[in-house]
Amino acid sequence: MSKRAYNFNAGPAALPLEVLERAQEELVEYQGIGMSVMEISHRSAEYEQLNAETQELLADLLNIPAGYKTLFLQGGASTQFAMIPLNFLTSEKVANYVITGSWGKKALKESKLIGETRVVAQPEKFSHVPDLSELQLDNSSAYLHITSNETIEGIQFQQFPNIGDIPLIADMSSDILCKPIDVSKFGLIYAGAQKNLGPSGVTLVIVKEDLLENTPDHIPSMLRYDTHIKANSLYNTPPVYSVYMVNLVLKWLKEKGGLDQVEKFNQEKTKLIYDVIDESQGFYVGTVEKQDRSIMNIPFRLKDEALEKEFLKQTQENGFVGLKGHRSVGGMRASTYNAVPYESCKALSEFMIDFQKRNG
Amino acid sequence: MSKRAYNFNAGPAALPLEVLERAQEELVEYQGIGMSVMEISHRSAEYEQLNAETQELLADLLNIPAGYKTLFLQGGASTQFAMIPLNFLTSEKVANYVITGSWGKKALKESKLIGETRVVAQPEKFSHVPDLSELQLDNSSAYLHITSNETIEGIQFQQFPNIGDIPLIADMSSDILCKPIDVSKFGLIYAGAQKNLGPSGVTLVIVKEDLLENTPDHIPSMLRYDTHIKANSLYNTPPVYSVYMVNLVLKWLKEKGGLDQVEKFNQEKTKLIYDVIDESQGFYVGTVEKQDRSIMNIPFRLKDEALEKEFLKQTQENGFVGLKGHRSVGGMRASTYNAVPYESCKALSEFMIDFQKRNG
């Protein structure tokens, strides 16, 4: 086997080597049943066990309180952008969005297609989370939507707003399970799997059941949360293999000691890179104010595009993958999801120091 | 490794052993790049290659003419049930459905939520495909929807209706690639992958591009075919691993000699089972008229439920999986998709003969 890449992909992204090795071992033959997990029926005892166990692992890791339901859907966060207003934005209501980056804007666009939608906070530049401590939402509010971590801009909520009885809905695609959160503050949490949960192809939804009593009748069955709640995510054929991989990743997180440990580990490894930026005397420029920096996505710039191009070229030659910033913002970005090892961040920080010596 | 099960699951279903072994071999390390295929970016050269090659393999196997676009989506056929009327059933139009079983009824239900919808043919009992040779559709027709193979009832279209300029739309989830078809007769073909294409988690859509000029503005981005056409199935993160598995299955089909050979092979192996039914003098009862029998799903009954229960118990004890009929119709069903080997069908036919000897 060749050396493992230093994988900083923004998603699909690095998976734990131990998880991949376990998946490889049992790919052809699952639990001695003469079949691959890809060949079992979603109505089989084996899949029911997998479905239930994966929900329990999430409940355990995130300390999900009673009254919430965990769903495994398809279509990614992009489908949730539409499902949320379709289910919650009934005709007399208004949807509220806090925009802190590119994904929030995409969510907003879909809500506008469905019903009355307003932006309640958006900083002029995507460099920080706006102060939401004074935010007051009236009773016409269907919900408040936030993006807990903006993958492209590298902005992460450090605390969540208190908005009384209005449901708080969060796109946590790129920071779910990176640290403990208080699920009881949320009406709905959703996350595409391909950053912190597993491979692409499954979307996690954690939803407070009692919010779903007013879904309009004309909404297609597959776009109704109550369809999937009633069927325990088995209304139609689920993405069995993706759920299986999520199951393995969650077990790996538990073995790591749970989310307190995972957060500590993420802070340690991202500190390696943020320290190089902060100590570079302006050679590397972070784009986010320190207090709202993400421990999942670290965007940074160099003084000009030519030098950035050279940086990316040399990192590629040295076994680093995925460091190019999103095409909409340019520059560099290191995505440091749970499965990205300390070793990769250490190697990147050392490369950055060396690159500065040679080009500073 | 334990013995491979005789896997007759209705979907997710058997995959070719060679494909599983290949997937296992390269699960941790894909093409020497130091990553799993699950860890590559969907914007990477590796995935672009996989996306393009999988489209080409389909074009080649199905002889797809110019003017059609091949998409890899999420959400299964159940999401297509809604997407089709959302995209095609504009306000002055009427959607037409031929109902030959349970899946057609599900598709119909979703269309009724969206717009004016009518059933143009439905046999009293789901035992045959109605005669559509005289079918006339007026110009208000948005499309005609058929289910080319009803997975639960085991009814398969042997030929497709000629309806002039009205788009013919077919759910081919359970018989895509089981035999050659004339794609040019269709406006849109769709299929969940988990029967003949690969594992669950990806949905194939083959659509005539010029039909998509009138999608209403308010349809959410993810539910618009034109979104996915413009982005070459990369509007959002695709189910990378599922597409990879489909790619391997398609290569396996090519190695088998293409769809003419595959059809012959399917006929030979299903004949083993249908012959036992036909020669059993009423011990085994087929539920479909001979001319419309499916070469993918073979439903059959015994004289009473007690004997059926005994049959299922004994097959389970003898290494057979998935022979229980769908809970909505009862009885038995052998799903004999492309990847189900001759050996499995031979074993089942022998078991059936033996079971009759012992219980006839």
Topology of helices and strands:
The structure is a homodimer of 360-residue chains.
Chain A lengths: L5 E2 L9 H9 L19 H18 L5 E6 L2 H13 L5 E5 L3 H13 L2 E5 L19 E7 L1 E2 L4 E2 L11 E4 L16 E5 L10 E6 L16 H6 L9 H16 L3 H20 L6 E2 L10 E5 L3 H13 L2 E2 L10 E4 L6 H18 L1
Parallel strand pairs in A: 1-13, 3-4, 3-5, 5-8, 8-9
Antiparallel strand pairs in A: 2-10, 6-7, 9-10, 11-12, 12-14
Helix pairs in contact in A: 1-6, 2-6, 3-4, 7-9
Please tell me about this protein's structure.
The structure is a homodimer of 360-residue chains. With 360 residues, chain A is an alpha/beta fold. Chain A has 2 domains: 17-255, 3-Layer(aba) Sandwich (Aspartate Aminotransferase, domain 2); 257-359, Aspartate Aminotransferase, domain 1, CATH 3.90.1150. In chain A, 35% of the residues lie in helices and 16% in strands. Chain A has 9 helices and 14 strands. In chain A, the strands form 4 sheets. A 7-stranded mixed beta sheet of chain A has the order 2-10-9-8-5-3-4, sandwiched between helices. Chain A has a 3-stranded antiparallel beta sheet with strand order 11-12-14, with helices on one face. A two-stranded parallel sheet of chain A has the order 1-13. In chain A, strand 3, helix 4 (102-114) and strand 4 form a beta-alpha-beta unit. In chain A, helix 1 crosses helix 6 (240-255), helix 2 crosses helix 6 (240-255) and helix 3 runs parallel beside helix 4. Chain A starts with 5 loop residues before the first strand and ends with a helix. At the A-B interface, helix 1, helix 3, helix 4 and helix 6 of A face helix 1, helix 3, helix 4 and helix 6 of B.
